[in-house]
Amino acid sequence: MPAFKNIALAGASGALGTHVLEKLQASGKFNIRVLRRIGSPSTFPSNVNVVDVDFDSVDALTAALKDQDAVVSTVGMAQILPQRTIIDAAIAAGVKRFIPSEFGSDLSNPRNRTSPVYAHKVQIQEYISEKAKTSGITYTYIYNNAFLDWGLEQNFLLRHSEYTPDLVDGGENTFSATSLSSVADAVVGVLSHPEETKNRAVFIEDIKTTQIKLLELAKKAAPGKPWQPRVVKLDDLIADADARLAQGDLGLATFVPYLYRSVMDPRNGGNFVKTDNELLGVKGITEEELFEFVKKYVK
Asked: Locate the NmrA-like domain: which residues (predicted)?
């Protein structure tokens, strides 16, 4: 498969998309076209080729994707299912590769695949894999398990803002974690190795860690704070989430326990056995560098 040159990016203004755009530009390998939803207030540097498009229109997207070799989607959760329209347009335009917004847990694991939080992502996987059988499009899923910097910033990996972190099942389970920047490196790596990444999932990580390790580093970063960690049982969190979901509660508090399970429960495969780091140019980080991440967010 020839190298990809013309790349369209959807979701370029989001937390991950900004990093992906930056890394695509920095690589110097690609011509980049940002797809911006009509009416979006998002702004980009003057050297970025931006096309305003109706994301609900296959015809409009097909025109926007003319002459593009690959589409990278970093859209947020609310826009996961509408990616089907982008896929249809990509096929119509002759795009060769689609990277859906699948970043996160390993969805080949049955426990993750049946999780309520990933239902829409699974539907997109099924959609693109079927389309790939009867068209010229191919796909790649990028799995990075926990977002390291985002997870710290949002108090997900360790609730540090009030110094009362919940340690899931004691906080001793090892899991893979990856920074947004390294995920963006992986996107560049996939686009640079089209044949090796064709129609499969790739796995990346910056480091393996635990909540206990993160708490240790947090205490080192903020030694004078009143740290009061508490142990919580994942089964209890999931039972509460199931009850909320049964009552129609689709709020963040409902879905966070399912994310904890996917990231931290050993049965869900969040501690990657092998990775594609070397192929994709993901260098990983040291524990010293992990401390720098923690220090940035823990005050």
From this structure: 5-205
The predicted model scores a pTM of 0.96
Contacts with 15 (C-beta within 8 Å, 6 or more apart), sequence order: 150, 180
- Is residue 133 part of the annotated active site? The answer reads no
Domains of the chain: 6-144+179-203 (3.40.50.720), 147-176+207-272+280-292 (3.90.25.10)
Contacts of 196 (CB under 8 A, 6+ apart): 279
Residue listed under structure tokens 């702004």: 43
Residue 116 C-alpha from the chain's centroid:
17
- Choice among 96, 121, 131, 213 that is catalytic: 121
Q: Could you identify the residue written with the tokens 């911006």?
A: 36
pLDDT in tens, the chain (299 residues): 778 999 999 999 999 999 999 999 999 999 999 999 999 999 999 999 999 999 999 999 999 999 999 999 999 999 999 999 999 999 999 999 999 999 999 999 999 999 999 999 999 999 999 999 999 999 999 999 999 999 999 999 999 999 999 999 999 999 999 999 999 999 999 999 999 999 999 999 999 999 999 999 999 999 999 999 999 999 999 999 999 999 999 998 999 999 999 999 999 999 999 999 999 999 999 999 999 999 999 99
The dihedral region occupied by 32, where left means phi > 0, alpha psi between -120 and 50, and beta the remainder, is beta
Burial group, residue 53, by CB count within 10 angstroms (0-12, 13-18, 19+): buried
